[in-house]
Amino acid sequence: MESRLRSVTEHVERVLALVSPLPVVTLGLADADGSVLAEDMHAAVSVPPFDSAAMDGYAVRLADLPPGGGSVTLDVTGDVAAGPSDVASDVTSDVTSDGPGYMAGIGPGQAVRIMTGAPLPPGADAVIPVEHTSTGGFVAGAPRAEVSVTLARRQRPHVRRAGEDVRAGQLLAHAGTEVTAALVGALAASGTVRVPVRRRPLVAVISTGSELVPVGGALGPGQITDSNGPMLAAAARAAGADVVRLGPASDDPAALRAALDDAVLDGPAARGGPAAGGGPPVDLIVTAGGVSAGAADVVREVLAAPSSAGEDDGGATDVDVATVAMSPGKPQALARWRGVPWLALPGNPVGAYASFELFARPAIDRLRGLGVAGEGSPGRGGNAELAMLPQRYPLGRVCRSLPAAVAWSSPAGKLQVLPVRVSDGAAEPCGSHHALSALATADGLALVPPDVEKVRAGDLVQVLMLR
Fold this sequence. Notes:
Elements: H1 8-18, E1 24-28, E2 41-42, E3 52-53, E4 57-60, E5 71-80, E6 110-114, E7 126-129, E8 148-152, E9 159-160, E10 171-173, H2 181-189, E11 194-198, E12 202-208, E13 212-213, E14 224-225, H3 228-238, E15 242-249, H4 253-266, E16 284-288, H5 298-304, E17 316-323, E18 326-327, E19 331-337, E20 340-345, H6 349-368, H7 384-387, E21 398-403, E22 408-409, E23 415-423, E24 426-429, H8 436-440, E25 444-448, E26 454-455, E27 460-465
Parallel strand pairs: 5-6, 12-15, 12-16, 13-14, 16-20, 18-23
Antiparallel strand pairs: 1-11, 2-10, 3-9, 4-6, 4-7, 5-8, 17-19, 19-20, 21-27, 22-26, 23-24, 23-25, 25-27
């Protein structure tokens, strides 16, 4: 008789209870992309820091331009280019003429040739784009030849005001936000040099099974190539972790214990040194296989062995073996190995990957300090089992509610995690849900609630998008 099934939601909660956000480190802005902010970030300076031209053209005084749009001819008295010059953004009346920071103001009937991004001269309050003037265009590298220009008032002033984009002190990003390329740009523009972030997690991935041969190895009778190890390592990297791969470990408890000890004791070599912040060498262990109820399921055997009193010099502690109400991926286990959180996933490749997305990725998110997912996450329907999942899904994943292209069955009482292709806005299963080839061609994972046994064509299903 099958033991009590644990809900996916409950198992997620137990996984998250094993881990905590990692210590804070301070990185140079150029090294911070992909990390997660540990503090709110505010602009150090305004962007732009001075009133500037939004177009190549002529800086003018609106008072000189007829309100009705008629043309006027102005004297061209100078040039202002973007970049280092004797022009300052804070010109004041006591700046000495022709000294550093001096910029001659524009008087009545005058215009100054100006380039995009250059500071607006004193007295100017608009820029007329060159293509709308008698000059017609500037020649790159050519000195100014015109002594006058004919132009007219335009609908827009084409001026970027100081602080128009960002004001000094303005909040740019909250703690828990991933540092993206776009955020790096915004932080750089606003004067940020160093960024407080959570240390990047180090995850040890170990596949188990005497039948497994490393990729590229010659296969003997009864052997297969290890696919779980490379797959889960790639998934952990995609989730924002550094990875150390070990194994495959054979179905021998001593071999698995040795691999686990290698991860805990030698894991820092993957970073080139001890873990930052004085924490354990690795932050998370993920194993695949050996967690079911078979006679050779080595993970179950190691977890069942008694541990020493102290968790740092013993084996497994806080052991939690569960049968989770999901398909595939029903056998699961949680523990700590010498104090390091350990997620034991099933060996079925699709089940291992589904388990990574549902359990390991949220654990990595928590280690990284990521905020909880917002709108667009799964579970915004009425099903109770999915109701908690939106807060636990990675921010990098999008969940869409899509109609089923065809009908399919789903196991009663279990959350079905089914690889699907998305075509013409509808989801369709792509081969056997236990086949790795189906996962490789899938656009997403359909999440069918435990209380649904039959999905009909046209029914809306939640699809966790993989690409």
